[in-house]
Amino acid sequence: MNRQRRESHAAHLGWATAGSVSIGDVVCWRGAWGEEAAKVVQVLGLEITDHPREKYGREVDSATWSMVRANRVLFTLDNGHWAYGSQIHRASESGRLDS
Questions:
Q1: Are 22 and 62 in contact (CB under 8 A)?
Q2: What pTM value is reported for the model?
Q3: φ, ψ at 14 (rounded to 5°)
Q4: Does 96 reside within a domain?
Q5: How many beta carbons lie within 10 A of that of residue 2, not counting itself?
Q6: What is the pLDDT of residues 23-76, one digit of tens each?
Q7: Are 47 and 38 in contact (CB under 8 A)?
Q8: Residue 97 resides in a domain
């Protein structure tokens, strides 16, 4: 499957795609500050912070993966947990971690 078609299919299913992550997307989360095994979860809320690892920010509908990697995005997840960006990774359609 070519990349454009794969991303379109992933977006239709709610999987986070290449450039950004949005409310409703499916991602992999690692609990215990990133130490636990990855679990597939859905994003219920996003906040952008002014500095890395702050606990509160401004609510947004989507964020770039570069902001996530900079640890400036807080996630509210459908499993009852919240997470820093360092605990979140893209999920492939099979639920495996993507880099």
A1: yes
A2: 0.76
A3: 90, 15
A4: no
A5: 7
A6: 999 999 999 987 899 999 999 999 999 999 999 999 999 999 999 999 999 999
A7: no
A8: no
Report d(CA 18, CA 37) in Å as an integer. Answer: 23
Instruction: Report if residue 41 sits inside a domain.
Output: yes
Does a structural domain hold residue 66?
A: yes
∠ CA 60-63-67, nearest 5°, is 125
User: What is the span of the domain harbouring residue 42?
Assistant: 3-90
Three-class DSSP labels, the chain = CCHHHHHHHHHHHCECCCCEEECCCEEEEEHHHHCCCEEEEEEEEEEECCCCCCCCCEEECEEEHHHHHCCCEEEEECCCCEEEHHHEEEECCCCCECC
Q: How many domains does the chain have?
A: 1
Q: What are phi and psi of 13, to 5 degrees?
A: -85, -10
CA gap 7, 13 in Å, rounded = 10
> For residue 50, what are the CA distances in angstroms to 47, 70, 77?
10, 11, 21
